[in-house]
Fold this protein.
Amino acid sequence: MASASPEGDAEAAAKAQSWIDEAVLPPGAVRSPEKPLTTGAGFGNESYRWWCSPMELREAYWTIPGTTVVETASWMSEHPTADLIVTNPFGNPTNRVVHNATVPNAPTQESLEGIIYTIAEAKDGVAVRALIGVIPGSAVCPTPEPGTSLGGPGQG
């Protein structure tokens, strides 16, 4: 996915690319050049509304054979990418069947930039999509109403 910023921002582009290059996925993950086929619910919401504009956006995909959504999301909740944190860890206390799950990574809990990993069932395992959004220096971000906050990546 190309930059959403018409004028571009080299620093934001480099940061977005580094998050792809340093993505932490479970053993056996294979990078896919295109969106892999999923089964069932797929990746769910195909887009995310980033609060700031413009944003430096990227998208990347992986497949992981022989695993489940629950196993992958649980593993990824314990292994954030690069210098990021998992802002909303996956939990499945009822051990129910899960067809897709989201594990967001961001620099801080309040950050409006980061990675939204979505794990979805695939024919022989799972597929993982990473939506990456980085705030360039030229971006404008809304100011929330007093007593409220804006949800970070994968949080609304």
Summary: The chain is about 15% helix and 25% strand.
